[in-house]
From TrEMBL:
This is Acetylxylan esterase. InterPro entries: AB_hydrolase_fold (IPR029058), AXE1_dom (IPR008391), CE7 (IPR039069). Residues 5-320 form the Acetyl xylan esterase domain. It holds the Pfam family AXE1. The lineage of its organism: Bacteria, Bacillati, Actinomycetota, Actinomycetes, Micrococcales.
C-alpha cells in the first residue's frame, strides 16, 4: 500500500492535459515497423496445452511477432467452435504467461482469452515465461527500460508493441473468434501495451488499460519514487550527455501518444496511492485519449494493485454493454 496522495489532487488530475512530446514521424515510424514485421509473418501454431483442466479448452499458441520471431501465448476458451468475443491480455513488468490454466475467469465468462507472453521477461514474479528476446543491447541498466534506448529502432518496447499488435491479426483469423468483438486489456506494463495495441491495430473493438505504465515518460522518470522508472533515472545519471536523446526515443513509445490515436471505447483504471505508476501519468493518457466513449475507475485508497477482481467485474459489465 502506498502513502496518501502520491500525486496531484483528484480534481486537478481530472483536468490534467500536459504537453507530451510527440515525434513528427510517429505514425510513419509505426507504419514502417508493422509493415516490416507483417511481411515476415508465418502461420501460427495452436496445440493443446498439457493441463488437468478438462471443462475449458486451453491451448498453446505460437505466432509471428516482431521480425517474424516466435512469440508464445495461452489461448483459454469455452468448449465448441461457435465464435466468441475475445479478450487479449498483456502482462505486467517482468511477468510471464505462467502455467496453462492459471487464468480462467474470462473463458468462464464466455470469452476467448489470449494471454501474450512478453519477450525476454517472466522471471520477476508469477510462474515464468517462455519467449526469448534474441536482440542484444548497448550499455543498459539491469531491467528492460533502457535496453536499446539510444535509438527508437533498437528500443526494447518497439519489439514488444509490435508483438502485441500482430497478435490481434492472429486472433482475428481464428474461426472460434468473432473478429468484430476483440478487446485488449492488461495491468501496469500490460496497460501500456494495451494502449499501443489499441492504437496500432484497427481490429481492436474496445480497450481496457488498468493502472497503465509507460505513459508521460518525462514526468514519470523525474517524479516516480520507485522502479521500473528509476532504471531510466540511473541510466541518465551515468550517461549525462544523452538526456534529450533518451526522451526523444521514449516519445515514440509514450502511452499518451498512443492514447491520442485510440478511437475505440476505452475503460481505464487508476489508483491514487500508486508509487509505481503516477496517477497523473494515467490521467494524461486518459484525458488526451481520442475515444468519444471513455471512462475511468478511480481507486482512491489503493496502490499499484489497483482494483483487482473488483475492476474485472466492472470490465465484464462494461464489455457486455458494448459487445
Amino acid at each position: 500500500m502506498g502513502v496518501a496522495q502520491t500525486d496531484l489532487p483528484l480534481d486537478d488530475l481530472r483536468t490534467f492535459r500536459p504537453a507530451v512530446a510527440e515525434p513528427a514521424d510517429f505514425d510513419e515510424f509505426w507504419q514502417r515497423t508493422l509493415a516490416e514485421s507483417r511481411a515476415l509473418r508465418t502461420p501460427p501454431t495452436l496445440v493443446p496445452a498439457v493441463t488437468p483442466i478438462t471443462e475449458i479448452i486451453v491451448e498453446d499458441l505460437t505466432f509471428a511477432g516482431f521480425g517474424g520471431e516466435p512469440i508464445r501465448a495461452w489461448v483459454t476458451r469455452p468448449r465448441g467452435h461457435t465464435p466468441h468475443p475475445a479478450v487479449v491480455e498483456y502482462i505486467g513488468y517482468n511477468g510471464g504467461r505462467g502455467i496453462p490454466g492459471e487464468r480462467l475467469a474470462w473463458a468462464a465468462a464466455g470469452y476467448v482469452h489470449v494471454l501474450m507472453d512478453t519477450r525476454g521477461q517472466g522471471s520477476g514474479w508469477g510462474t515464468g515465461g517462455d519467449t526469448p528476446d534474441p536482440h542484444g543491447s548497448d550499455a543498459a541498466v539491469p531491467g528492460f527500460m533502457t535496453r536499446g534506448i539510444a535509438d527508437p529502432d533498437t528500443y526494447f518496447y518497439r519489439r514488444v508493441f509490435t508483438d502485441a499488435a500482430l497478435l490481434i491479426d492472429t486472433v482475428c483469423d481464428f474461426d472460434f473468434v468473432d473478429a468484430g468483438r476483440v478487446s485488449v486489456t492488461g495491468g501496469s506494463q500490460g496497460g501500456g501495451i494495451t494502449l499501443a495495441a489499441a492504437a496500432l491495430n484497427p481490429h481492436v473493438r474496445t480497450a481496457m488499460p488498468d493502472v497503465p505504465f509507460l505513459c508521460h515518460f518525462r514526468r514519470s522518470v523525474e517524479l516516480t519514487p520507485g522502479n521500473p522508472y528509476q532504471e531510466v533515472e540511473r541510466y541518465l545519471a551515468v550517461h549525462r550527455d544523452r538526456v534529450e536523446n533518451v526522451f526523444a526515443t521514449l516519445s515514440y513509445f509514450d502511452g499518451v501518444n498512443f492514447a491520442r490515436r485510440i478511437t475505440a471505447p476505452a475503460l481505464f483504471s487508476v489508483a491514487l496511492m500508486d508509487e509505481t505508476v503516477l496517477p497523473s501519468s494515467v490521467f494524461a493518457a486518459y484525458n488526451l485519449c481520442g475515444s468519444a466513449d471513455r471512462s475511468i475507475e478511480v481507486y482512491a485508497f489503493n496502490g499499484h494493485e489497483g482494483g483487482l477482481t473488483a475492476q474485472w467485474l466492472r470490465q465484464t459489465a462494461w464489455l457486455a454493454a458494448r459487445l
